[in-house]
Amino acid sequence: MTRILVFDSGLGGLSVVPEIRLSLPGVALTYAADAAFFPYGDRDPLFLRSHLVRTLGHLIETERPDVVVIACNTASTLALDTLRDTFSEMAFVGTVPALKPAAQGSRSGVIGLLATPGTITSPYIDALKQKVAPNCVLVRHGTARLAAMAEAWLRGDMVKDTDIADEAAPLFQHPDLDTVVLGCTHYPLLRHILEDTAPRPVTWLDSGAAIARQTARLAGPVSPGGPDRALVSRLSAGYEKAMAHYSFPAPIAWDLNKHPAIQDLASNHP
């Protein structure tokens, strides 16, 4: 049985699940949402890196996945290398903002990056821009509210379209912007609203298909048969409804205290 662990701070990673299912029919999925620490975007980097080592260590121990998908831009830019070093026998897929296809497809050479403040200010983004889009103008906007709006919308709460539009509005101050990269897995959940409320037509890109392709490459031939599972670090209102929308069973809470040895691993990665 082939199992893929999809991990995110909340519900945003659900946006990549349909792409993974298309690429790997019959694969067993575990979706893990770290709801107790959502959102990651404004967490202290040192704390978050240690927390991710501890949390992923527990989930790898209990779920025994073949591939771990870090379906979170903030966690990927901050801790992916650390996770690969710590769990060297595990295959990891990170989430990289789609700057390369944005640069290749932009006619004006002006692309926008809509992401969390933690992702926007990461040195990783500077290096990625220089590597894949050196000749483009990159307009960055960090929003601390949009991920929470996406969570609320998927839970069925009322979210105003105008409030969502306001979070992306600063990008459109550049008159030549023609492409926007959604640099958080939560944002594709609101893509239809962002498209409808944008002041002018632009191309919107996310990383879902690329994540699925890399996951399929690492997983290899699928051995089907296992049940899908949903896990959370804290049971939260509306999560069961959101998980059911993506054909997951009701989520259950994980308990890090069942694997105290994982705490020792985390202490080695401040």
From TrEMBL:
Record-annotated active site: 72, 184
InterPro entries in UniProt: Asp/Glu/hydantoin_racemase, Asp/Glu_race, Asp/Glu_racemase_AS_1, Asp/Glu_racemase_AS_2, Glu_race
Residues that bind substrate: 8-9, 40-41, 73-74, 185-186
Catalytic activity: L-glutamate = D-glutamate
Pathway where this protein functions: Cell wall biogenesis; peptidoglycan biosynthesis
Keyword tRNA processing: no
Pfam family, one: Asp_Glu_race
Family annotation (SUPFAM superfamilies): Aspartate/glutamate racemase
GO molecular function, one term: glutamate racemase activity
Highest rank taxon of the organism: Bacteria
GO biological process: cell wall organization; peptidoglycan biosynthetic process; regulation of cell shape
Cell wall biogenesis/degradation as UniProt keyword: yes
EC number: 5.1.1.3
Keywords on record: Cell shape, Cell wall biogenesis/degradation, Isomerase, Peptidoglycan synthesis
Matching PANTHER family: GLUTAMATE RACEMASE
Main function: Provides the (R)-glutamate required for cell wall biosynthesis.
Stated family: Belongs to the aspartate/glutamate racemases family.
Official protein name in the record: Glutamate racemase
Annotated source species: Haematospirillum jordaniae
Gene designation: murI
